[in-house]
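Narrative of activities, Objective 1.

The group set out to show that a structural description can be obtained from nothing but a protein's sequence at a throughput compatible with the screening campaign. Below is one input-output pair from the validation batch, recorded exactly as produced.
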Amino acid sequence: MTAGKNTVKTQLRAARHRASMRAADALIDLVKALPFPDRIVEGGLMALQAVCGASLAYAIGSALHTAQPFWAAITAIAVTQQRYSDTRTLSRDQFIGALAGGLFGFAGASLGAGAHEILGYAATVAAVIVACWCMNVGSAARLGAITATIVLLVPMQGPLWDVPLFRLLQVILGAACTLLVSWLFTQAARLLRGP
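Output recorded for this entry:
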């Protein structure tokens, strides 16, 4: 019975993935088919959205005197998408990846992995990728690997737990700012289009 349920879940997940890929391909084809002036407008709107999210995240991070607020700005840019639902999905993946990468990076650093222990670093990055896939969040795997790399290789002062904790907080701040900006852009577009 359980094997049958797992098969159905896997098939549904695969069907959703295929549908999502077809929709993404259709959107890309639509954008490529836009006349050049329309592409300039779309690109300008994306740039404005990314800049607003990143600037807000950086300003809040700086005002709160967080260590390295540029990580919040980088996250904001990384998760910015044309559609709010895509931004939300990527923000979720970024959060899960940062959490997993922070935990694995902390564990790896506690065991001595890092810039001077390349095998430990490689094992930690591989472990976080495999763990994300095993937990069925493969889309967060590369983000987890990036966070583990930051935790293990970016020189920092202070307690070992500082890096993963502050990295996670910066991800939350950057994603939250981008979600707010993306939602505001979506609402503005609806108002401009009218009923």
